[in-house]
């Protein structure tokens, strides 16, 4: 608010002072038309008052600074060439520092070169411009230029002011500038220049612009106060995501419409291009004479920028908020997953209790029925129980005898092998006896779930690291995952143990291996399933790499299923994090 009040007061005081100077002076003049500024604008033949979106806003429409969001510096040089010595060349250069909503510019123009004959210092004009804009909304802004003139190398001084407005939407722009509305140099007031321009961008990357300038020419005998019109049109397009721009334009001053100013019109054509990076841009324009002039213009500028735009700040803030939101949602999902897992576990427990209750009821009913049946035929039931008991005892005796016979046969075979090796027994009958014992040993091994020699081979090498137990399903080898794995990767000790197992499987063929992975109940169930399967597959792939047939090794992941200890304690959870190998005969 203080900035707005300061600008309005400054403009009011400056305007009042200039009006007093103009009233006190009866003389007026039109400032000589300098080189137009800004390669982008010149490439569009000056149809830029309604566009006004680069550093040349100080010249075409100061209201465009209301949409400036970065800081930057820009330097420009332009020259107008002539092929005659009677019309010297003109040149112009400026240095501008701009900031959000404002700019400070030092501008110098000149006429003639060393061969023109114009005295030194008499063809140099310096202009210092302070520009400030006030954005009233996201689409509308007004702007003000305060200017100090020093023509002919400081021969005299002067002051001036420009005013501009700009309406800017996504596809349409409309701008107005009153240039030199109050200005005087050496006691003489200047005539104003009014610019009205519009632009339309229906395709996003293409802008079509049109503009009409009214150049005050002062009092002309028999005509009164005269404004000289100038019509400008231009088009601009951007390629490569806004990094390369091209433009063209046409400008005409219809001098033939005003008697006494000339039979011909004054018209030019503009061409230009830009290379634009995030913090740097290079712009060039070439103005081609068409009618009424022989001078062509070359203009080039470089601009360096820094700082962030509102869109970039908003994008960063949006990204930060989205990241925080993603983190919050992830935390909520983890909590929800943990809560869902707890609910699922409670549900499973309730279902288990319900099943147990139903099972208990069914068992009770079945027992009642059985009791009724037993009461009805107790003698038959007792006889069947006796038969089953006898068969069970027989099976136990057979198993014991089979185990004893296996041990005895193995011992006898070892003794015979030792004797044969020493040469103590060479008779054919003894060799036949040894062969018979080997055949009997093979038969006994066939009845076992797993080859006893394979079990012995494995147990004597890794029993200290791996829990080993013979079960009805086969030989169980239990690997504690915390000891043998780091995450999903096996430790060296695991590879050494698997080498022993692979060697035994190749030494005693005819076996298959099922590898089952398990986890505790903590964490996401799906993730636990993936971890358990990954560990099991890692062991399977290593055994296959050690020449164990793929059709003899199988891997499964069961996650938190089939715990062997309570998950309510740290020690219990550690026991449940395991990988189990079951070796059995095919």
In short:
The protein is of the alpha+beta class. Helix content is 38%, strand content 35%. It has 2 domains: 2-307, monomeric porin ompg (Porin, Beta Barrel); 450-585, OmpA-like domain (60s Ribosomal Protein L30, Chain: A).
Number of helices: 11
Strand order of the largest sheet: 2-3-4-5-6-7-8-10-11-12-13-14-15-16
Main beta sheet strand tally, sense and closure: 14 strands, antiparallel, barrel
Provide the β-strand percentage band.
Answer: 25-35%
Task: Give the low-confidence spans.
Answer: 1-34, 114-121
CATH architecture of the largest domain: Beta Barrel
Please estimate the helix content.
25-40%
Query: Looking at the structure, what is the overall shape?
Result: elongated
Highest-level CATH class of the largest domain: Mainly Beta
Determine Rg (CA atoms, Å): 50 Å
Question: Structural class of the secondary structure composition?
Answer: alpha+beta
Tally of discrete structural domains = 2
Assign the CATH topology of the largest domain. Porin
Give the overall average pLDDT: 81
For the termini, the CA-CA separation is 90 Å
The CATH superfamily of the largest domain appears as monomeric porin ompg
């Amino acid at each position: 608010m203080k900035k707005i009040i300061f600008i309005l007061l400054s403009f009011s005081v400056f305007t009042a002072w200039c009006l007093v100077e103009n009233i006190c002076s009866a003389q007026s003049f039109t400032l000589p038309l300098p080189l137009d500024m800004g390669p982008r604008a010149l490439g569009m033949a000056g149809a830029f008052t309604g566009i006004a979106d680069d550093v040349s806003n100080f010249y075409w429409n100061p209201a465009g600074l209301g949409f400036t969001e970065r800081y930057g510096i820009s330097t420009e040089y332009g020259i107008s060439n002539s092929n005659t010595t009677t019309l010297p060349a003109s040149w112009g250069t400026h240095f501008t520092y701009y900031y959000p909503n404002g700019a400070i510019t030092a501008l110098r123009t000149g006429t003639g070169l060393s061969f023109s004959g114009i005295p030194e210092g008499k063809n140099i004009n310096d202009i210092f411009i302070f520009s400030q804009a006030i954005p009233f909304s996201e689409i509308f802004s007004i702007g003000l230029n305060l200017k100090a003139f020093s023509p002919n190398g400081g021969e005299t001084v002067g002051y001036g002011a420009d005013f501009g407005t700009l309406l800017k939407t996504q596809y349409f722009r409309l701008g107005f500038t009153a240039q030199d509305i109050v200005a005087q140099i050496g006691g003489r007031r200047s005539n104003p220049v009014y610019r009205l321009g519009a632009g339309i961008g229906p395709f996003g990357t293409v802008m079509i612009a049109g503009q009409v300038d009214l150049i005050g020419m002062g009092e002309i005998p028999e005509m009164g106060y005269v404004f000289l019109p100038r019509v400008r049109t231009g088009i601009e397009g951007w390629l490569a995501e806004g990094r390369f721009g091209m433009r063209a334009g046409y400008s005409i001053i219809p001098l033939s419409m005003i008697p006494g100013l000339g039979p011909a019109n004054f018209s030019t054509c503009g061409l230009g291009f830009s290379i634009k990076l995030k913090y740097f841009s290079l712009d060039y324009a070439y103005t081609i004479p068409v009618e009424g002039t022989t001078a062509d213009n070359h203009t080039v500028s470089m601009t360096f920028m820094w700082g962030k735009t509102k869109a970039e700040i908003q994008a960063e803030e949006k990204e930060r908020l989205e990241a925080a939101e993603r983190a919050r949602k992830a935390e909520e999902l983890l909590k929800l997953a943990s809560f869902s897992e707890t609910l699922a576990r409670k549900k499973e427990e309730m279902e288990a209790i319900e099943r147990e209750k139903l099972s208990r009821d069914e068992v009770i009913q079945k027992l009642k029925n059985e009791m009724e049946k037993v009461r009805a035929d107790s003698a038959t039931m007792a006889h069947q129980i006796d038969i089953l008991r006898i068969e069970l005892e027989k099976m136990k005796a057979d198993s014991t005898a089979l185990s004893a016979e296996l041990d005895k046969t193995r011992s006898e075979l070892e003794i015979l092998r030792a004797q044969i090796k020493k040469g103590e027994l060479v008779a054919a009958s003894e060799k036949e006896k040894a062969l018979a014992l080997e055949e009997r040993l093979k038969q006994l091994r066939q009845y076992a779930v797993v080859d006893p020699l394979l079990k012995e081979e494995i147990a004597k090498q890794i029993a200290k690291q791996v829990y080993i137990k013979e079960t009805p399903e086969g030989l169980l080898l239990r690997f504690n995952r915390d000891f043998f794995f780091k995450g999903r990767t096996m430790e060296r000790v695991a590879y050494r143990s698997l080498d022993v197992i692979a060697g035994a499987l190749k030494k005693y063929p005819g076996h298959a291996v099922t590898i089952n992975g398990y986890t505790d109940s903590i964490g996401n169930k799906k993730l636990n399933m993936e971890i358990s399967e990954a560990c099991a597959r890692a062991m399977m792939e290593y055994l296959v790499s050690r020449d164990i047939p793929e059709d003899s090794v199988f891997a499964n992941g069961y996650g938190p299923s089939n715990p062997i200890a309570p998950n309510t304690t740290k020690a219990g959870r550690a026991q449940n994090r395991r990988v189990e190998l079951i070796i059995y005969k095919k």
